Amino acid sequence: MAMIMNKCTSVTLTRKLSHPCCFSSDLFSLTANIRPLYPSTAKSFEFPALLLTFLNRYSVSPFHLNNANVHFTFDFNSFYVSFIDNSTHKTHLNQIHAHLLASGLQDCGFLITKLINVSCNLGEIRYACKVFDEFPDPDVFLWNAIIRGYSMHNMFGDVIEMYSRMQMAGVSPDCFTFSYVLKACSGLLALEMGWRAHGQILRHGFELDVFVQNSLVAMYAKCSQIRHARMVFDGLYDRTIVTWTSIISGYAQNGEPIEALRIFSQMRQSNVKPDWIALVSVLRAYTDVEDLEQGKSVHGYVIKMGLEYEPDLLISLTAMYAKCGQVTVARFFFNQMKLPNLILWNAMISGYAKNGYAEEAVGLFREMIGKNISVDSITVRAAILACAQVGSLELARWMDDYIMRSECRDDVFVNTALIDMYAKCGSLDFARIIFDRTLQKDVVVWSAMIVGYGLHGQGREAIDLYHAMKQAGVCPNDVTFVGLLMACNHSGLVEEGWELFHRMKDYDIEPRHQHYACVVDLLGRAGCLSQAYDFIMNMPIEPGVSVWGALLSACKIYRHVTLGEYAAEQLFSLDPYNTGHYVQLSNLYASVRLWDCVAKVRVLMKEKGLSKDLGYSLIEVNGKLQAFRVGDKSHPRYKEISVELERLEKRLKEAGFVPHTDSVFHDLNYEETEEILCNHSERLAIAYGLISTPPGTTLRIIKNLRACVNCHSATKFISKLVNRKIVVRDANRFHHFKDGVCSCGDYW
DNA sequence: GTAGGGTTAG
């Protein structure tokens, strides 16, 4: 065997190999000959395997080796490339690096570039940096390699820093550099930087590069500049699936799912076939608009394309089903997943929470914690939303306690959700504690607290907070005013509410349906029904369900049948399948004893296949929620409850309580009516609360419907008779009963 | 060696 050194970059090997069977041992001897040249590397690598790869590259088969004198050039660069490519650890790279330096190859930039790329692939970004810094005069490839390393590890700040160092070093960027830089701008939401990069791209003449173009579209979309993204997109002649996906997801991310879907159909017309990432974006848009049918058809397409095993696409499908209310289907997918990732957990939990499956949401959240799966602020927010729905203060306390010990404790979004949760679970005091300890309160934090006060009918506190908010230099928004107007309504501050409504224009806030509905409610509460009607007629926007609903409520309170009928007509045409409107009208008729009309409404409902929602009340005792339905006798302690109920009834009568009979749905005779009223679920819950808690304990009740006049009146009496605070959350708001009065001032 | 995706939403 002969070995001729050809300077430092290659050797030529000539060898006559004797026998077919000896191939591996021949390789071994070959190795043995090379080894002294490279003592350090030879020790650490699977040298023969590498050499075999190498021989293949030069089309030297074992056959050749066995039958002829083999004569080939051993190229050192390729040799190093093989070594670098096959490295699996930093120590390998370090040896090669040392060897390169020792062989005088340190100037061979492309090998160092390779070394840096592989280091970065192995996650050794610090090491890559060290190698980079030791290289005397890096070219654009080397700069790109180190920038790529930072980019692939989402270290976008470092990408930008290296980019500016590169510019200072006087090295011109290329298309690759700009792809990385734009991606970093997207990641950092650094629009200013993105603008500058765009300018430089034009100056360098890279605006026609498809990668650069796609990166620009994505950057503008991520930085909420969807119009600019669109301008770039519209200017493109060649659009790849990546371009289309960027603009589609851009619209979806910027809250314009309809436009996203419009562009998707354009894409289909251009005969561009979607891949799984494109479908993920499309699914997101259908998820946002909660279009189950279209979502399902995407699912069909996924199956047709054979993409149903793409894990991340399955996650999007699960999220779509969960958000569109198909939680059982979603759960099926969820269960199929071997190792659900955080996004999937979040999609499932928020799907449950959003669709009223609060128990399931909380259960899944507990499961995550039990399994030590790390959660993020999105998980926590979905769980908080579920707790707010459940309405259990005990559960709310548990959630709060968990968050205090987690990394989310200073997250503004999480704290806002906590304020909302406590308010909805009946405790403004705890809501206020969260509010007070939230640093850097933004307008939404202030608004959440104001809405909380509104929910509980504490109008004065809401208005005080509004002034404090302005004092703190925070500008109110439309939600703030919804909270304020609601607060005024719920506590009878008619003048103040009217005044606040007119302050909205000082902040350039266009009133929306909710604001108008609040004003109608305010006027209605004051008994100014014709003013309320005029106000509606002069609205600059078409009055919607909430506005007519407010008018109908007021008509019911003041027994104004003709106006009430008019409002109901509007409601029936806008929202024909909402049972509540029919019940309201029926109650209005009942209040003036127009039993024929009550019957007519009942027939109307029957024709439309509607039935009155079953009322139920929940009461929390020792952290457990107990449900009571109207006339429910299934409770294990029903006997005791009914004894207590009778006792209460007797005491109520003695105290001079006269049942109101006009709020019932049926035109029954007096005795029957009274009995049904007595069994109203709220009363059952109170009776149970009284027998299962020590004297003086506040009773907390949650109802699914609005409070009825009779129960409301009775609960006022009871609060005085038994000397208890009773907090009732109905479908609309909170009632705090104490000493015979309710915080709502008898208007709700 | 470059570009595109998902979970929340007061």
Automatic annotation (TrEMBL):
This is DYW domain-containing protein. Gene3D superfamilies: Tetratricopeptide repeat domain (1.25.40.10). Residues 656-748 form the DYW domain. It comes from Quercus lobata (Valley oak). The keyword Repeat applies. Coiled coil: none annotated. Belongs to the PPR family. PCMP-H subfamily. GO terms for biological process: RNA modification.
